[in-house]
Amino acid sequence: MLRTVAIGQYVVGNSLLHRLDPRSKILAVLFLMVTLFVAKGWLAYLVLAGLVVLAYLLAGISPRYMWRALRPVLFILFFTVTINLLWTRGEVVWRFWRLAVTREGLHMAATMSTRLILLVTSAALLTLTTSPIALTDGLEHLLAPGKRIGIPSHELALMLTIALRFIPTLVDEADKIMKAQMARGADFAHGGLVQRARSLLPLLVPLFVSSFRRADELATAMEARCYRGGEGRTRLRELRYSVLDAAAGVVLAAVCGSVLWMRFGGPRG
Amino acid sequence: MTRRVAGAGLGGRVRDMARISLFAALTAVGALIRLPLPPVPFTMQTLFVLLAGLLLGGKLGAASQLLYIAIGLAGVPVFAGGGGPQYVLTPGFGYLIGFAAAAYVAGRLAWRNPGTACPLRGLFVASLAGTATCYAIGAPYLWAVLRWIGGIPIPASQVLVRGLLVFVPWDLAKAGLAAWLAWEIDRRVRWAGAR
Q1: A100: which of A46, A254, A257, B113 is 20 to 30 A away, CA to CA?
Q2: Is B28's CB within 8 Å of A116's CB?
Q3: CB contact B34 to A (< 8 Å)
Q4: B178/A contact by beta carbon, under 8 A
Q5: What 3-state class would DSSP assign to A47?
Q6: Span A216-262, pLDDT tens digits
């Protein structure tokens, strides 16, 4: 489990999508999601679905991950389909007892669920092809202009990295404390509600005290090494846009541009 | 809670950053550890949210929760059931945003009087206010996601019952537990000289 925390959903690989700059991937996903929200009509969704499938193929990510990404929204997806199917008024195409499926209902259910599936799978693509650390790097750069209006981009990125680093440590620690207290006779699994609430104390108090201590030790260590904020800091891996990013940008602009044209500029229908 | 002596300049700032990070990590851990407490599978997540506010104060507590959300959105499986940017589209994401607001409100109320320890009763009231804030954001978000993303127009009264009222008794108990734990932890943290 410690390993899954460190890399998150990231699927290690070296595909075209993996090699894109994290900044371009974040911007691309945002742009794609906005386009999905305003898109209208069958052709538009077909084109966008084609783009998402193509992206998964290029990334070399198996459909299993697509399914896994959809799991948290399955519930809402199910209700979207059933409710729109059965409760939309219009021309009845199929009737069973008191339930009537209408042409409008079919249309609504299909568009709503297609949109949701595309939104979710395209968003998941970002974290499937980008490690949390690379994402943090990209976010720090993208938010850097916000410094003037008080967005602490560097501090944010640093805190994200520290927190990621400490999650496995604290999981280990909680586990160790639990075992130590059980060895001393603590019982986490039995007794009434009050009894069990009480049993949290010997677990949480050491955990929080040691977290405070770790935080203060870390701060001291950073100061001892002359940490002075983001000003003038260098980094091991510099981010650089490449030809690949430009190519991806052109493809995305072409597809989304045509979808937006269908929605706002083109002939109605 | 007692106000810590403000560190001068960058010094206090670095320590604040470290504490925010550690509490974000703690919240993630709280969502990961499951204690065998039937009938409801009990994760300590909401408990940790309130504790972050009560122990760190409003601003730092809220920052730690926002950081926790950011970690989850970056694809690290720290939410109940996973992680990734697609979680923004789930009906329950509003409660996660509510966590940050809850920590802020609870922290502000608990740290009202600088220099003096907040009494247990004050901590309980702060926890309750925090919990209420969480729902004030979570329930409308639930409604909005169902309405505009799911295309399911359900009446607001239904959301109120299903997304809020059924949790009330359980949350009263949790707020009490949070207040009591914060009281005990704070006492011992000060005793251990960690602040």
Answers
A1: A46
A2: no
A3: no
A4: no
A5: helix
A6: 899 999 889 888 777 777 777 778 888 888 888 898 888 888 888 88
